[in-house]
What we know:
By secondary structure, the chain is of the alpha+beta class. The longest helix is centred in the last third of the chain and has 20 residues, at 68-87. It has helices at 53-61, 68-87; strands at residues 3-12, 15-24, 35-40, 49-51, 65-66. A hairpin with an 8-residue loop joins strand 3 (35-40) and strand 4.
Amino acid sequence: MAVHIRLSRAGAKKRPFYRIVVTDQRSPRGGRFLENIGTFDPIADDGRFTIDHERLAFWRGLGALPSATLDRLIKQQARAALAAESAK
Length: 88
């Protein structure tokens, strides 16, 4: 079973909201998942992105692969945190 970490769409029409889920590769985008580890709200002014880093590390340790989009979002969050830390 190939496990992936990806976005699962929720929300209403024209108001997207995504859950960050760990799922079997064969499951559809909004289908069954193993665990919900975070959220992403692209409509919010600050583009709210929350993720449980401990669970992300756990699943990556087991061989789960993040999607390209999720990988990009994680890197953006890390850069923003580093910039905020250096600005202090």
